[in-house]
Every structure is written in structure tokens, then in C-alpha cells.
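STRUCTURE:
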């Protein structure tokens, strides 16, 4: 869990707190905390109260967006910090088009993972 700078914060269109994520996934908040700890989700401290929040785009149809966990693993293996991963996922990529996060939500995970793998070269 990391602090987030204003630039990266501005890239993410919407955020959810951990209880909201738990409700959407149909699990306890402790399970969401475990998902963050395992690296399946990225949570950052935001706002005046420094509440842990997760980008809303990471959740769809009552589950973690397909391809997200593998993409996060690839980026982490490439040495990305949580903040760098968020910046990469939410920065528009004209070759996709859109952002990698949008592409994951649109079930274009293969394209996203290919780009993430290319970063390591």
C-alpha cells in the first residue's frame, strides 16, 4: 500500500474503498485486504483521511477484471512500483487505443500483457 501523487491520482477516473470492493466482489473486507497483500489488487492511500482505495476499473461484473492479476505480476516482475503500475495502466496508449486499464475491461488482456512484457526488454 502506497501513497499516491497528484499526477497519478488524476489519471484514475474513479476509486472505491475496500468495503465497496468487498461488496462488489461479495466477500469480506479481510479478503480484499488479502488480495491487496497478495498483489492481485493495488490499493493506495488517498484523500485527507488517507483511506485505502482501489481504482474502480479493476472491478467488473462482480470480480477482478480478467487479465489484471497477470498484468500486475508482469509489471511487478519488471520492477514497477505500485504508483508506476497505476500510471502505466491509466496512461493512454495510442497503439491500443485507450489505456491498458480500459483494454483489460474490454477483454483485450493479451494486447496489454504483450505491451507489459515488452517493457522488460
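SEQUENCE:
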Amino acid at each position: 500500500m502506497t501513497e499516491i501523487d497528484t499526477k497519478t491520482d488524476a489519471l484514475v477516473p474513479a476509486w472505491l474503498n475496500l468495503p465497496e470492493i468487498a461488496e462488489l466482489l461479495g466477500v469480506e473486507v479481510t479478503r480484499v485486504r488479502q488480495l491487496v497483500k497478495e498483489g492481485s489488487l493495488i490499493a493506495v492511500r488517498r484523500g485527507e483521511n488517507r483511506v485505502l482505495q482501489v481504482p474502480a476499473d479493476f472491478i467488473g461484473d462482480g470480480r477482478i477484471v480478467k487479465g489484471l492479476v497477470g498484468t500486475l505480476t508482469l509489471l511487478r516482475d519488471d520492477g514497477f512500483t505500485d504508483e508506476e503500475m497505476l500510471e502505466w495502466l491509466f496512461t493512454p496508449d495510442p497503439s491500443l487505443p485507450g489505456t491498458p486499464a480500459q483494454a483489460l475491461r474490454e477483454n483485450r488482456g493479451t494486447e496489454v500483457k504483450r505491451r507489459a512484457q515488452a517493457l522488460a526488454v
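REMARK: Helices lie at 6-11, 18-25, 29-38, 68-77, 82-90, 100-105, 109-119.
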